[in-house]
Specification:
This protein has 149 residues and is α+β, with helices and mostly antiparallel strands. Bound molecules: iron/sulfur cluster (2 copies).
Length: 149
């Protein structure tokens, strides 16, 4: 034990002092100083491989199947059904007809997400993935940054 105390007393702390070396009196004031170039943020540690950060949604790849909603344990995903639109369809013989198409997509509430990755695993269209973004704290759970759609 004495040896361990000796080693620890000369070792540098492994904690990353993020976002500042000393806790600022006011976080808002500190962020203001950062914006004005008077202070700098201690960079976060590099994210490990396969880090589970803010979810990314490829709306164009999604077919609106709704499977991700069913597996999400946090109920962080809802389906969005857009009003039907008329589209022109051309058949094999070149005949053009009009059809009504209802578009279904999803909306993800980041504040509710627990980053489990279940929705990504179930999506057969590879429309969902995770980014390395983790600075997600906000006072408004419905802020633009907290909604992915
Ligand atoms: S994201 Fe994937 S699983 Fe979810 S509705 Fe779209 S296609 Fe289906
Ligand atoms: S990662 Fe998990 S909690 Fe987050 S939206 Fe997907 S299924 Fe829901």
């Amino acid at each position: 034990m004495f040896k361990e105390i000796l080693v620890q007393s000369v070792k540098k702390p492994v904690t990353n002092l993020f976002p500042a070396v000393r806790l600022p009196k006011s976080i808002t004031g500190f962020l203001g100083d950062v914006a004005n170039g008077k202070a700098t943020i201690t960079p976060p540690v590099a994210e490990p491989k396969a880090f589970r950060g803010k979810i990314v949604y490829d709306r164009a790849a999604c077919n609106g199947c709704g499977l991700c909603l069913k597996v999400c344990p946090a109920h962080a995903i809802e389906q969005v059904v857009y009003p039907p639109v008329k589209i022109s369809v051309t058949d094999a013989e070149g005949n053009v007809s009009e059809k009504t198409k209802t578009e279904k997509r999803i909306r993800i509430y980041v504040a509710s997400c627990i980053f489990c990755g279940q929705c990504i695993d179930i999506c057969s269209k590879d429309a969902l993935s995770m980014s390395n973004e983790f600075l997600l704290a906000t006072e408004d759970r419905f802020a633009e940054s907290q909604i992915v759609e």
